[in-house]
Amino acid sequence: MQTIYLGGGTPSRLSLDQFERLIDVLRQRFDLSRLCEFTVEVNPEDISAGYLHGLKHLGVTRLSIGVQSFQPDLLEFMHRAHTSRQAHHALELVSDTGFTSFSVDLIFGNPRQTMKQLRDDLRQLLAYRPPHISAYALSIEPKTRLGKQHKLGRLKPADDDDVAAQFHLIREKLEKHDIRQYEVSNFAKHGHEAVHNSAYWQHENYLGLGPAAHSFFWAGDRKSAIRFNNSPDIHAYGQVFASQNPKKVNQPEIRESFAGQESLTLQTLANERIMMGLRTREGVSESELSSRYNYSLNITQRKQLELFRKEGLVAPVDPLRLTAKGIVLVDAIILKLL
Amino acid sequence: MKNIRNFCIIAHIDHGKSTLADRLLERTGAITEREMQEQVLDDMDLERERGITIKSHAIKMDYKASDGQNFFFNLIDTPGHVDFAYEVSRALKACEGALLIVDATQGVEAQTISNLYQAIDQNLEIIPVINKIDLPGADIDGMSQQIIDLLGCKKEDIIPVSGKTGEGVDVLLEEIVMKFLPPTGDPDKPLRALIFDSIFNAYRGSIVYVRIMDGTLKKGEKIRFMATGKDYEADEIGYLRLKPTPCNELSAGEVGYIIGNVKSLEDTKVGDTVTSHKNMASAPIPGYKEVKPKVFSGIYPTNTEDFESLRTALDKLQLNDASLQFIPETSVALGFGFRAGFLGMLHMEIIQERLDREFDMDIITTVPNVEYVVETTEGKEVIVDNPSDMPPPGKIQEVREPYIKAQIITPSEYIGSVMKLCQERRGIYVNTMYLDAKRVDITYELPLAEIVFDFYDKLKSQTRGYASLDYDIIGNRPGQLVKLDILLNGDPVDALSSIVHRDKAYEWGKRLCGKLRQLIPRQMYEVIIQAAIGAKIISRDTIRALRKDVTAKCYGGDVSRKRKLLEKQKEGKKRMKQVGTVEIPQEAFLAVLSMDDD
After folding, report:
1. What DSSP letter does each residue of B412-478 carry, written as one string?
2. Where is the domain boundary, A199, A228, A248?
3. Count of A–B CB contacts within 8 Å?
4. Of A136, A275, A328, the CB nearest to B548
């Protein structure tokens, strides 16, 4: 096992004792001797110096801090539990504790966010010399709080052009600090790219534990892979593990107890790989597509690629990867290409 | 023959024709209640949904009159929409009488009057009937007065009924016996049978509905269709009961059907005369005419590979709708498709819907237009039913377009709005006639092109649904007509061209560009929309290039979600047409029709 990532909930609500128990269990079940990255997501309002020292002591190598913004009105709009002051305090604690690797989440493209606010957020954030930043454009999803407000006409999403301008600003500012974009939403100093997330994008195997967590398994020589997920309902999830031996989790009869699973053909996997590859700085090489996925681009795709190359959206030579101009249009490009 | 009564029903849409017809069938025992599907005469789903009879049918009823005599009634149903006026005229021709049905809450409408005049012209006896007297808003006295003004009849001649409750239906049946004349005609003369309708059956071929005017038709006899000159054998003949009932002979005055292994409706045209091969009539029944389409539009498969399936579907539709015409055409923008001719907009919509429902065809229809006659500077005449065929402006001497005479009946308080509408549509005022204190009959001459799209809907909405419309084609007249082209990124999109009046071209071009800007989604490149007459650009709009199209997060389960979304978007994209570098959604090709929706 190479990486552990604890997130997608609010793991920083766990006490150090609980953390210790959790990690003990993991040590018992898995071989952690080659572990190179152990990330924990933390919320600014949850942490203290003691807590961070504790995590470090337990083997955590990397923190992901959900700062989002330093602007009080934006934090309030997003219903964040922390204040601007808590965000600063958290970042101070992180550097004081001596975490050399950490990531900070930043949100842009808020309906009322101005360029000035974003510039201010970046300035404040860069003062902490973060080795990694995840900058996400706010997306208003149906059925969420914002989605409902949008549907009712109470919320006007930010103009696409404004969001695009903010995106460019972020990239430009971070670049100046040697924090480079290596995926659509991820920026890092050399050597600080997230190993765990990169595994998702390269179809490496991962096991998701906890409600709603996804897992992916592909025995390299097989013509298909599976992706499956646990029930999002914590009780339903608990019941599965109460009645089954987790050791047998990869056996088919047990997999049936997962809330959802899909079998992915080589063709589907290839489409995914191109989709994810184009989101990254590394891109995806045609030789990889051929050897791992038995996939090659057809004439229509090649013609389309030529057009994109002429437009300066796709880099001129293999591997397939997008230019700075192309990356902001990645979804449209993928749609045209696949 | 003296105990036969052939009649039809003249009524406006929604005035309860079908319900009353059902009641007549029920009272005469032609149909039991169990067999009774609401409104049996309309048997296409589409008809029932739209509440209009598209194709006429006929049904035979036995009636024992109060004096003990037995009668045969043939009720011939008629279509109720202006698109199908010729079929109505042939149905009338097959009858001696007509029931004029007026809704007790609505009054007489233009379509009714137009059909009524036709019936009177053809010397039909009229029985005026006020229907829906069970409704709370029924105004029997007011309606009676309207009918008296219209027909010059007496109040006692008018029969109040309720198709819903059956009230008055018995009186009506007796009146049919008393007032309508028995058919005339000589059973011994050479056979002349009038085709008033024909339908297509997948197993039996064309089924022809006829009224025998003269002579006698025997089963198995060799027959000839006089207009088309085609010969067939009358393999099966019969009466039109609820189900076809075969018989050995149909003679003068009777109504029935003929099945003769006829492969296509092309050979059995409404209005044609059927005669006997061995004793041929010297002349057909007068009044036959080819039904000509008035509205034309391109029909294209959304997926170019569906061209052949579309052809098959249209062929099948044509088998039972001879008024549908189509020929293959090519569009630079849309590829291979067909130019189809329709009787009117309703007819066009019905065909579109049937292609969708019965054949599951995904199609793009282009903006409909009428047929223009263009005189070129070289003195040649060109018929243009597709804007792409319009000669370049420099080569045009004159363009002529079809005109109609429109009769609009409206409550007098809407005179202003009706006249304004007609004026906007380049109408030429003819006259106004008061039908009574509250209702007027306004006559306008209008270019057909101005009324085919949305005139009727506009008329309805501006008169709160009260006005009604009927029209006749009165010939071609010269007009200042120009072809308006739409260019996307400099390339003309032929399927978006239209022919418009010069005075309206600027406004039209501007609005069309604006509408297209709304309908065409932002793309990876900037899209410039231009409207042009010849080489002259008259309007311009820009769809700015997409600036950002990214999904922010793509970890774990997001990957599946994102991939599925992509698959869905790809499906959606199949419904778009790529013209040059621009992707155009289907709706854009009909943008013109929805220009007033903003």
Report:
1. GGGHHHHHHHHHHTT-EEEEEEESSSSEEEEEEEEEHHHHHTTHHHHHHHHTTT--EEEEEEEEEEE
2. A199
3. 93
4. A328
